[in-house]
Known about the structure:
It comes from Bradyrhizobium diazoefficiens SEMIA 5080. By secondary structure, the chain is of the alpha+beta class. It has helices spanning about 5, 45-50, 70-80, 95-110; strands spanning about 30, 55-60.
Amino acid sequence: MDIKKARPRTRINLTSNTDGRQSSRPLRCSINAHPWRLDLDWRWHQAALDFGCMLSINPDAHSIPELDHMHWGVEMARKGGIPADRVLNAMTLPEITRYLRQKRRSLARAA
Ligand SMILES: [Zn+2]
């Protein structure tokens, strides 16, 4: 049995936090680009965008050749209507550096 086929899909609530309010901190969601996963399901991409999520696309590679799975994640993001400016992988080095610095600062303020 292929363990990736057997693993249940990730279950998340994109409509609210446990207390029913939207998070004040933007969330990050991952699109798993492995062909047996492909979650977050593209049908939920608009909800993730509406919720304020930044998305990353990861190949879930367990070997060098599996890095090629990235294109499946990009295809799913396109199918789900995710614009490039909401994908962490699509940022330039200065953009991701600025983004992570801002996140670090806002986390430090919240602590
Ligand atoms: Zn994995």
